[in-house]
Amino acid sequence: MTRRAAHQAQARRKALRIGAGSTIAVFAAVVVFVPMAPGWPAVQRSFFNAEVLQRTFPGLLDAFVLDVMIFAWSAPAIAILGLLVAIARDLRSPAFFPIRLLATVYTDVFRGLPVILVIYLIGFGIPGLGLPRPWNSPYIWGSLALVLVYSAYVAEVIRSGIDSIHRSQRAAALSLGLGHGDTMRFVILPQALRNVLPANMNLVVALQKDVALLSFVGPVEIFRQAGVYKSLYANFTPYVGAALIFLIITIPATRYADYLLQKQRQRQG
Amino acid sequence: MLRLEAVNKSFGANKVLDGIDLEVAKGEMVCLIGASGSGKSTLLRCVNLLEPIDDGTIWFDGQDIADPDLDPQPIRQRIGIVFQSFNLFPHMTAMENVMLAPRRIKRLSRASLHASISTLFDRFGLSDRMGHYPDQLSGGQQQRVAIIRALAMQPEIMLFDEITSALDPELVAEVLDVLRALHSEGMTMIMATHEIGFARELSDRICFLDGGRILEQGPPSKVIDDPQEARTRAFLSRVF
After folding, report:
1. Which among B81, B88, B104 has CB closest to A178?
2. HSE, side-chain direction, 13 A CA sphere, residue A99
């Protein structure tokens, strides 16, 4: 073993000892001290009640299907609208000025508003017009609110990706005689979208969670279903169950986003 | 074939091209030499219409291509340019890099292009590199692919912007060989270069640029071996 290798092995052993020691200490403290708190038995009964969890979990899973569906139709719509807005903001010709202005105002407005506010305004406002079925459904308008807000986020992310492509790539494409449209479609966007894939994955994770906000305008998805069970059993455990179900989905997605980011860092050396 | 008349170009207060007059005949090879910042690259980028000129005229095949109202795309298709930093598209293979413009502009199918483009790769010693991505190629190979990419549009004139400056010394020769081949086929070329030896060997005419002006021009035997201007002599003594 070289001197350097020996030194590194020793440093690794030391780091491992410290890491293991502090982890055990923290966990021990939680396990020993938290149950010693005066209110613990009550908290355990109303938040970590195995019996309530067992009875409500299947119902929560059923309700979660609605979250998944809202996500499933919102996400593609967001991808398309976000891309269109990003491209609209990059149009240079003066003839496209109104489109560019509209796209800029759109992103400014929807990036500047709290998601829940947009969901309230659209989710209650538009059905209030007295539209006939099915156009009075809060599913549709609640989803639209999510699509509008998240498309503004995605558009900004994609635009930053477009800006990150060096000018020389555009020059090379134009010098061959390619038009602006072809240059964008074949040269700039493929590279830009790849560069911002990790950032967009983070938005995917955020969207998965924000679907629950739709419960405020009506749809009985998992968060609202948990509220129903809470009232029924006078117990908060269904919320913990809902949290677990969300984590089963979001943790792998978050890990995957991190993995993509790391891979990209390596690629860029 | 190409004639520049009193071409002026400024970046802000910085005058980069100051009254350039230059005529290039069909089949001629013209080398632009001069220090960094003397205007060589800007001159080439203006001819390719990547930079608009402020004043003057650029005649190409009897047409004033510096007209600001002109659509630059059809002109650029007839004028090839190769850059110092290759500028290959990193997400495409060498073959896809070359095929993109002919496919989109001339609406030719991959199948019909494959034969003619393979021949180009073959000629420049890259037949086993067609499916490689740019980051899998050496600098010299990337630059040869960039030349093939420009040639695939069958341009009437080729512009080379210091195409060997970013290469390791041992890779310069393979790129210069390509230029020799093109010159022997009668391709019209303008080349900005620091390779004075190569410019002397191959060019029909050498222009020495200084401060955005063509200070001296003529055959290599005059400009390089018997320069009239003090600044040309000073420049040559520094690079030789």
Report:
1. B104
2. 13
What are the chain A neighbours of B87 within 8 Å (beta carbons)?
A: 168-169, 171-172
Domains along the sequence of chain B with CATH: 2-239 (3.40.50.300)
User: Residues A110, A149: contact at Cβ < 8 Å?
Assistant: yes
pLDDT tens-digit readout, A90-148: 888 888 999 999 999 999 999 999 999 999 999 888 887 878 877 778 888 889 999 99
The set of residues, in sequence order, having a beta carbon less than 8 Å from that of A101 and lying 6+ positions away, is none
pLDDT of residue A257: 84
Residues of B in contact with A161 (CB under 8 A): none
In sequence order, what are the residues at sequence separation of 6 or more whose Cβ sits closer than 8 angstroms to the Cβ of residue A86? A154, A155, A156, A158, A159, A162
Compute the average pLDDT of residues B133-139.
93
Single-letter amino acid, residue B151 = L
Instruction: Give B145→chain A minimum CA distance, Å.
Output: 13
Distance CA B5, CA B56 (A): 6
Q: For residue A173, which residues of chain B lie inside 8 Å, CB to CB?
A: 89, 100
Residues in A closer than 8 angstroms to B77, CB to CB, are: 176-177
The answer to whether residue A268 scores a pLDDT higher than 70 is no
CB contact under 8 A, B48 and A191: no
- Structural domains of chain A, with CATH: 51-268 (1.10.3720.10)
Range B101-127 average pLDDT: 92
ipTM score here?
A: 0.91
Report CB contact under 8 Å: B83, A168: yes
**A190 Cα to chain B: minimum distance (Å):** 8
Please give the residue of chain B at the shortest CA–CA distance from A176: B77
pTM over 0.90: no
Question: What integer is the mean pLDDT of B141-158?
Answer: 95
What is the amino acid identity at position B78? R
pLDDT at A218: 78
Residue of B nearest to A175 (CA): B76
Percent of chain B that is helix, strand, coil (3-state, to 5): 40, 25, 35
Q: Give the model confidence (pLDDT) of A58-80 as tens digits.
A: 999 999 999 999 999 999 999 99
